[in-house]
Amino acid sequence: MTAPQTPPGTSRPNAFPVYLLGLGSWFVPLGIQMVLFPWLVAVVLHMDAFAVGVAQAAVMAPSLLFLPLGGLVADRGNPRRLLLRYHLLYAMPPLALALVLWGGGLSYPLLIAYGLIAGSIGAFAVPTRDALLPVVAPKGGLPRAVALATALQFGGQLLGIACASTADRFGPLPLLVLHASLVLLGCFAVWRLPDPPPHPPADHPGFWKSVGEGVSAAAKSDQIWPVLLLNFGVGIFYVGPFMAILPLAVRDNYHGGAQELAYVNLAFWAATIVAAIAFAGLARRFSLRGRLIGIAVAVGSLILVALASLPSFPIFVALNFVWGLGAGITMTQSRTVLQIVAPATHRARLMSLFQLGLGGGGPIGALLTGTICSIWGLQAAMLLPAFAMMLLIAVILFRSQLWSMRTVE
Q: Which domains does the chain have, with CATH numbers?
């Protein structure tokens, strides 16, 4: 299969819609996997809570290991061709799992292997796709492109989650086939994308030195390091409690089950999508993106304090909606800053650090807040991360130019 002949670095007028089509073909299946994988472990195999946790870690752990390597490979290679290969590879695990289920051979070790393989492919694909975004974005429209891509990413996941909710009724086989089919269809979208400009000839240092160059580039930029540090704080102090503490609050304080937890998640992620879409329309009117990020993250800490008061359940859900609005602003504006400021030679590595902050900080925060909850209770497990985040925000505002930082494409 040969890509259409387009000069490297030249964006065709229809490149961005095709990019979004490829994005959706990845994240709808990811949403299916987010529900179907733990369902297979917990419901089909009847494994205990510890085994379910280990299986979920098998999906998440490769991000910690391979995101920096994925960014390095994308920076050194051709992101379009790499992404095409990742789509082909990502379709193989669900097809293999479907064949095993068809033959009645499902087992826990097999699902662990599935999680490790699928998580590893995803860790390589995420920074590669981010590296392509500036190539396909309309001229002068990168902030809007980032906002639309973020909205579609979460919207695709929600659609995939909705599809996977039919597993009890139709079984896993149709969903696994749908997963693989959508990813393979995405190959045609990726194939239609233009190639990025070729990298200038250079001697490539070793892996750790190359990763260190990405970290060094972030540390030297007055615009990048405060954004990455805040993002890591969001991973630890916000994603951690969201993963580990809110489900416990729903269960123990509101005596709810899957439906109540679904309300909380739907409120949060729907608000994230609303914020991303809103900023897709308003993106070019803002240049003080650092100020927007700082305000949104600070409001998040206040929301966490309010959640710690354990109000009535409707108010609890409404607070999660407001928290989701802040999350949507933070993610879209942070990604926009990095896409605008990052040099092309280091862009994928810096985007991998951005993803690593959320992906790596989340499990760390979940472990910390879970431990706090077991010792001091639910409210302490929400208040302490909120106060820690307030302290981090204060330090970053004092030591950086985040509040006055301007980023214009």
A: 15-191 (1.20.1250.20), 210-399 (1.20.1250.20)
